C-alpha cells in the first residue's frame, strides 16, 4: 500500500488559514491536502454540511468550531465567520476552514478569502468535489453525456435575501442549457419550475432531487418538471439537495452503481435502446 506521508504535500503554518472543500459527504472524496489539513489544524471551523465522518479525521486536541451555514437554519453571519478566521490566525493558530462541496462553488469561499486578504492573513485554497457533480455521480446521474448535452448550467435557487434570483435569465437558460443543476432550489421549486416551463421547457422533462448526497442517508426522487414541487412535498424530502433537470436523469436506471451494490439490476443504455427502436 502506498504511504501518502511520502508524498511531498505542504503543511499548515501557524497563522495561516486553509479554505478547503470537504466534498458532498463521503469522507473518501476528501482530497489528500484536506485530509492532511484535518490532521494538522489547531482549529477547524466547519459548516453544517460537512459530514461528521470527515471531522473524525481531525487530530487529537484540535478545536472544532461549528459555523452553521445551512439554508433555513440558524447560522452565524458571514462577516462574523470571516473575521473569526482572522482572529484565529492572528492568535497564531493553524486554521482549517472546512466547507461542504467546493469552497468556490456557491460556498462563499471567495468572500472569506477576500477578508483574509484585507487583513493580511496568508491562506491556501483547496478545491473540493462540488455536490452538483459528485452528488449526482453518487445518484448515477452524469452531468454530461455526449448523447444528451455539451453544456451544463449550475445555478443557485435563491439569492442572499432568500428569494429566487431575479438576475437569472431563465428564458436564456431554459432555451440554451440541456442540463440544469441547481443548488438550494427546494424552497422555491414551484416558481423555478414555472419559470423554466414558461421559457419553453416541457412539463414532462425529467427531474431528480438528490438529498444528503454521498452519505448513508442519500435519497433520490425522480419526477418531472411539471410535478416536481408536488412530488417533492408528497415525498417529504428535505434539504440539503441538488436538483437536476434534463435527459441525463434518464441514465440513472443504467448508472445507479450504489443501487447495484444493494441488488438493483441495472438496465442497458436507454439511449441506445431508443435508437434501435427508431431504426426498427
TrEMBL record:
Q: Which GO terms describe its molecular function?
A: uroporphyrin-III C-methyltransferase activity
Keywords noted in UniProt: Methyltransferase, Porphyrin biosynthesis, S-adenosyl-L-methionine, Transferase
Q: Which Pfam families match?
A: TP_methylase
Q: Name one GO biological process term.
A: methylation
Asked if the Swiss-Prot or TrEMBL record annotates the protein with the keyword S-adenosyl-L-methionine, the reply is: yes
Top-tier EC class: transferase
Q: In which pathway does it act?
A: Porphyrin-containing compound metabolism; siroheme biosynthesis; precorrin-2 from uroporphyrinogen III: step 1/1
Give the superkingdom in one word.
Bacteria
Q: What is its EC number?
A: 2.1.1.107
Q: Which residues form the Tetrapyrrole methylase domain?
A: 17-227
S-adenosyl-L-methionine keyword on record: yes
Q: CDD domains, from UniProt?
A: SUMT
Which family does this protein fall into?
Belongs to the precorrin methyltransferase family.
According to UniProt, the name of this protein is uroporphyrinogen-III C-methyltransferase
Q: Which organism is it from?
A: Peteryoungia desertarenae
Amino acid at each position: 500500500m502506498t504511504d501518502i506521508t511520502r508524498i511531498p504535500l505542504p503543511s499548515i503554518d501557524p497563522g495561516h488559514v486553509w479554505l478547503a472543500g470537504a466534498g458532498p459527504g463521503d469522507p473518501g472524496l476528501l482530497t489528500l491536502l484536506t485530509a492532511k489539513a484535518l490532521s494538522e489544524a489547531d482549529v477547524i471551523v466547519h459548516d453544517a454540511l460537512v459530514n461528521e465522518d470527515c471531522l473524525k479525521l481531525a487530530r487529537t486536541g484540535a478545536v472544532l468550531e461549528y459555523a452553521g451555514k445551512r439554508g433555513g437554519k440558524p447560522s452565524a453571519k458571514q462577516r462574523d465567520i470571516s473575521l473569526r478566521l482572522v482572529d484565529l490566525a492572528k492568535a497564531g493558530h493553524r486554521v482549517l476552514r472546512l466547507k461542504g462541496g467546493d469552497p468556490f462553488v456557491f460556498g462563499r469561499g471567495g468572500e472569506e478569502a477576500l477578508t483574509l486578504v484585507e487583513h493580511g492573513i496568508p491562506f491556501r485554497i483547496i478545491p473540493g468535489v462540488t455536490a452538483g457533480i459528485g452528488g449526482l455521480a453518487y445518484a448515477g446521474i452524469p452531468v454530461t453525456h455526449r448523447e444528451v448535452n455539451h453544456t451544463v448550467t449550475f445555478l443557485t435557487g435563491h439569492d442572499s435575501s432568500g428569494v429566487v434570483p431575479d438576475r437569472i435569465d431563465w428564458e436564456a437558460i431554459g432555451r440554451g442549457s440541456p442540463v440544469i443543476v441547481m443548488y438550494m432550489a427546494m424552497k422555491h421549486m414551484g416558481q423555478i419550475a414555472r419559470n423554466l416551463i414558461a421559457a419553453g421547457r416541457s412539463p414532462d422533462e425529467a427531474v431528480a432531487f438528490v438529498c444528503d448526497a454521498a452519505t448513508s442517508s442519500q435519497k433520490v426522487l425522480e419526477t418531472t418538471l411539471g410535478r416536481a414541487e408536488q412530488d417533492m412535498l408528497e415525498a417529504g424530502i428535505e434539504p440539503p439537495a441538488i436538483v437536476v433537470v434534463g435527459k441525463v436523469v434518464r441514465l440513472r436506471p443504467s448508472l445507479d452503481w450504489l443501487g447495484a451494490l444493494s441488488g438493483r439490476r441495472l438496465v442497458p443504455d436507454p439511449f441506445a435502446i431508443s435508437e434501435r427502436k427508431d431504426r426498427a
